[in-house]
Here is the input.
Amino acid sequence: MPSALILLLVLGAVGLVLAMPGGRTDRGRLGLVALAAAGGVLVFTAVNLAAGERGLTLFIVCALVALFAAVRVITHRKPVYSALYFVLLVAAVAGLLIGMQAEFLAAALVIVYAGAILVTYVFVIMLAQQARPTLCDLKAREPFWGCLSGFALLTVLAGQFFLGTAAPLPAASPAEAAGTVEAVGTPLLTQYVVGLQLAGLLLLAAMVGAIAIARRRVTVEEELELEGEA
Amino acid sequence: MLVPYLLLGAALFSLGLIGFVTRRNLIIIFLCTEMMFQGIIVNLVALGRYPLDGRPTFDGQVFALFLIGVAAAEAAVALALVVLLYRHRGTLDANAWTALKDE
Here is the structure.
């Protein structure tokens, strides 16, 4: 495990603990500076690991945008901004998928995530909007222990990537075709057709469940009472 | 190029986990599960593109498509639950539900 990676993990953990909501503003700024330094180390590590490989520039740009957006999602005090940063994260991940020649999947990700799921999230945030930022957004729960456990997991995973690969890592086969609709759709509709049907069934069940859960009759009296309170 | 992609996927998953355990807003908590899905999608596609036995397939991309479907189903049910909980207590704070019973 290269020492640059250890430095990256430590800087990221310290920066994230400081940047979590609940601390003082100047500490939050310091945390963002530490996270930016971690981003610099990340660029250095990636260039060292995969120098001269095709698509490295796209990977570095998309990875930095994705990590920045991910950090802002979990540190921003306003839920709407968190949701918007998540849209940025989805866009960066779509860029990464294009770098791996998964064009159809990138398009599907943007359409389904940024187009459908996130709109639902923003809709619910608007529905449950409070006038001022509430305590549950301003104060994180145990930021130190949360960051410690998360970065412990990340360290174990990263260590495995380096310790467990005694054999030379595979390079991409140059003959591989792009992930077009045909290339992805053919196994989807032949080899995995049962899974496809089950996914449809799952979505139907989720839709029925969501309607059943969120439905609640509001009588006219309750409606008037709510209006009177407002 | 396999290891950088796997590292990024692991980082996104860990950041989602950190957000999941530290944030107290129910909507942000579910947003963090979606973030973990993003990390897993990157991993799946990377392992399909750079497979360990040297034969690239589209299985990783097909599986990632299934994952997007599951994420959509999860978002629908989770947000319906959030709306229901918000109607009961008038707050999105997860700490308001530690007792798990309705007074």
